[in-house]
Structure formats: structure tokens, C-alpha cells
Amino acid sequence: MADEKQLPTYKLIRDDMLRRITEGTLEPGQSLPSERDMCLTYDTSRMTVRQAIGELELQGYVYRIQGKGTFVASQKVIQPLFHISGFTEDMRKRGKTPQSRVLFCGTLKADKRTASRLGIALGEAYVCVKRLRLADEVPMAVETSCLRYDLCSRVLDYDLEQNSLYQILTSVVGLSLKNGNQYIEAGLTNEAQAVLLGVPTGSAALLIERHVLTETGVPVEVAHSVYRGDLYSFYVEFDPPEME
Ligand code: 16G
Question: Which of 25, 67, 164, 231 is the most exposed place for a label (fewest CB within 10 A)?
């Protein structure tokens, strides 16, 4: 067995931090000791400390906020898929503060795929909202919602950085968002998505296509989302098998 003392210093620091994170001495959201303190504690250079932190960041255990420091990343969000819920509602339930950055909000003309999914004519206008979704300032997902114009045009009157889309659709427009389905597949972030999500290009992602319908089966939303693979886990429960 390799003698621990022979490990390079940056690995010793990394493993020490990792132990404190997994033991819970360093909790999610808590900042790591400053680089300066770590240099003193481990009697090493700033470069070595940075190397250790860099590894922890790559492995998703910590994240940096520019100008603020390095923080312990929260454990994965475990998202049950029993009923349709929105990002704002989901994050609030977990005691996290949801935030959105609107990347696009307006109308577009439907291409063949969007038209068929929304049940509208080719070239017909639909509402498109693209947002970066964050929780406690950590980027979680990039979401593009395509919405039927005839049902959802009022969404355009609202600031979607401050308001929940589903809140507007249910409380203002009066839609019931109870029916739907969702496809989830594995993918890798492209460069643009990686920049928005603050991860290296080619990081693991969950690619989701969500279809939301009214009670009478009229499509309301078709959303394409890229969720961070290191932060999300979707959870489904099976019904007991029917007895013969
Ligand atoms: C969720 C939905 C997304 C919806 C959004 C509304 C998934 C994969 N996607 O993130 O389709 O547009 O919630 O969130 O769950 P909001 O009500 O906070 O605006």
C-alpha cells in the first residue's frame, strides 16, 4: 500500500478537505478556509493550495463565486417526478433561493418540430423563453420553454427574472398544468451551455424534453432543458404490480 506521506502535498490537502466535506465538518454552502490560511496550515505555497482546490472543483465538491471565495457544493438535488412542478417551487421547497437570468424572451415562428409538438401551424408565432436557472447563486440548468401564443401570450407582460412562469400560467392565465410527460437522456454540455452553467465544456448533463398539456390535452409548453449532471438526480417510484 502506498504510504500516505508520499502523496504530493496538493493531494494531501485535497483529501483532507474531502474528508471534512464527507464527514460534514465542512457543510454545503460553507466557505473553504482562505488560501492564505491553508498555506499556513499545510506549510505550502499558494500554487499547491490552488491545485488542490482546482481538483475539488473539477470533481464538483466545491464551487467558486468570483470575488467571494470557494464554497462547499450542495449535495445533488433529488427531484421526484410524480407531478408537474416548476423550478421556483422546487427550489423553495428545499430552502434554496431560486433565481433566473433571462437569455431570450419573445415570439418566434414555429419550425416543423415545434409546430407539431405545440399543435400549431408551421410558421405560426409561439412564445419562447430561454433562461438560466440558479439556486443559491449556483447555476443549475438552462431551459428553453416554447409556449402556445394563444394560451400564454400574457407571459410576455411579465419580468421572468422576478416571476415564476408556472405561477403566471396557473394564477394569471388560469391554466391547469397537471398533464404531461418528460424525456430524460444523457448528454454533454456544449461550449455555450458550459459557460452559462460554470462547468467545463463536455461535462455530464441531463437533457430533458418536457411536454405540458391542459386538462383537455392541448399542448401548453414544450421545454428543452440542460440540467447539470453533477447536481441533479431524478427520482421515480413504481406502482406495486397489479395482482392477477
Ligand atoms: C421546470 C421545468 C420547465 C418549466 C419551469 C418553470 C423541468 C425539466 N422543467 O424547470 O419546463 O418551464 O420549471 O419554472 O422540470 P418557473 O415556474 O420557476 O418559472
Answer: 67
Q: Which of 79, 85, 87, 159, when mutated, tests ligand 1's pocket best, judged by the most ligand atoms within 8 Å of its CB?
A: 87
Q: What is the pLDDT of residues 119-137, one digit of tens each?
A: 999 999 999 999 999 998 9
Query: Which residue in the block uniquely carries the three cell numbers 508520499?
Result: 6
Which protein residues are within 6 Å of ligand 1, measured from CB? 86-88, 143, 145, 164-167, 208, 210, 221, 223, 225
pTM: 0.73
Lowest mean pLDDT across 9-13, 211-215, 230-234: 230-234
What CA–CA distance (Å, rounded) separates 23 from 117?
47
Strands 204-213 and 179-188: antiparallel
Query: CA-CA distances (angstroms) from residue 213 to 15, 72, 85, 118, 244?
Result: 48, 39, 13, 9, 33
